Sequence to fold (346 residues):
Amino acid sequence: MQALWYSLLTVMLIVYVVLDGFDFGAGIVYGLVAKTDAERRQVISAVGPVWDGNEVWLLAAGGTLFFAFPRAYAAGFSGLYMPLIILLWLLILRGLSIELRSHEPYKLWYEFWDWTFRFASILIVIILGAALGNLVRGVPLNADGYFAIPLFTNMLIYPSIGILDYYTVVAGLFALAVLALHGSLFLVWKTDGAVRERSIKLAKRLWWIVIVFAVVTFALTPTVQPGFFTPLFGRVWPLITLLVSLVGFFYIPSSLRGGSDLRPFLGSVVFIAGMLASVAGTLFPNLIVSTISPEYSLTAYTASASMYGLQIGLVWWIIGMILVVGYFTFVYRNLSGKISAQTKGQ
Fold:
């Protein structure tokens, strides 16, 4: 049952990154693909109707973590309190920038919220990427099941680590490149005209940048977490999902030369989903890895709620997911089609 809930939590986080990732990515490339006010409204109109719904998956994943693995929730949220507060404020600023941008007809007003949208989107993705880097590298979790960690120290992992170090910053930049590519491909699918053409050109460049950061990140991983890749090649599912991820990634450039604007975006979806599933499968059963001692690590078995609670919760989780999936299917079907530069934005 614990393994099942670990898988369900992983699926919810993957859905969140895939869905909210494309509007984060749109924010990252916002100033590069949209040059005029009409084009900027076009980009905002592409993400405006769905960005807040996409973030529901983050809340749902947090609720699932709280319910299924309360010890991991308590340790993680207390130890990472500062970056979580920073993330919360950035999410608020980003939401305000989308909703308030067109409320006043002044150039200074537009530009302020445009820069806020870009700034918040970039920092959010770097923080989320660094958070994944912390999960891989580990944190100083003690025997009591808690840890305290500064935002940064000397950017190295010795003698003491911080939330930000050379590895987690590189992981954050890797996430930035991946979601910038994801957002560009989303705009290829959802927009037309000059924004679409610029998004295609940018996506082709970003594809190579993702390769560079992927190589650097994977090369650095054994230096901070020796033996991390051992389970990857010793278990079936992490290896399969990694191969699926690579298929999705290498499908992107060929599909950009085809006639469908949706296919490159779907390739990005497969790439991100497969990559995150592979990381989760490699980490399993660990939820929070301790750098002090492996026996202090919190796993799906040591951090879980009672078996009775997990069984009852599964029933309500299934009911809730049926409603959520139905709602999202309805919303995305009704918002199908391209957004033109003449469309009035938020």
Q: What stands out?
A: The longest strand covers residues 286-288. DSSP finds 13 helices and two strands in the chain.
